[in-house]
Design brief:
By secondary structure, the chain is an alpha+beta fold. The protein has six helices and five strands. The strands form two sheets. A three-stranded mixed sheet has the order 4-3-5, with no helix packed on it. The chain has a two-stranded antiparallel ribbon with strand order 1-2. The N and C termini lie far apart (48 Å).
């Protein structure tokens, strides 16, 4: 399955996953999927739940948690824990690097085709990489400038 999705193909992927697993295809699950895609950023489950509620669509927090788990299992979302205890999710996409500020917690993504090409060519102990996300921890420019002033 590709890591690149558009809104229509994500729904198709999720529908096939639900059908294969014999899960119910509920409007709530698809509303949660659409909102997760619409956020265009990293999010935790509570942020996703609040965004859905703010749209006037009421779903229980448990439904959001369960659906996020299904979306992760389907390969649509990926889960990250960036030094805190809270799981942060994002829609799967191309290989990328997370830059995480240890001061403010801001997460930025960058792509580096040279690093990506090198990693994807690794073949260590017959392990063949399919995708990656690298996390680098440091201090962002804004926090660094604040510390110097």
């Amino acid at each position: 399955m590709s890591n690149e999705f558009d809104n229509d193909s994500i729904e198709d992927v999720f529908t096939r996953f639900l059908t294969k697993g014999k899960f119910r295809k509920t409007p709530e699950r698809f509303a949660i999927l659409r909102k997760a895609v619409e956020l265009h950023s990293h999010f935790d489950v509570d942020t996703l739940h609040m965004a859905i509620e703010n749209d006037g669509y009421h779903v229980s927090r448990a439904t959001v948690y369960n659906t996020v788990e299904l979306l992760e299992e389907a390969g649509i979302l990926s889960k990250n824990v960036f030094g805190q205890n809270t799981a942060i999710y994002e829609v799967n996409h191309d290989n990328h690097i997370h830059l995480v500020c240890k001061r403010c917690g801001k997460i930025r993504e960058v792509e580096n085709p040279h690093i990506a090409a090198h990693i994807m060519q690794l073949n260590t102990d017959n392990f063949i990489p399919e995708s990656f996300a690298i996390t680098l921890y440091g201090v962002c420019g804004e926090c660094s400038a604040n510390e110097q002033s």
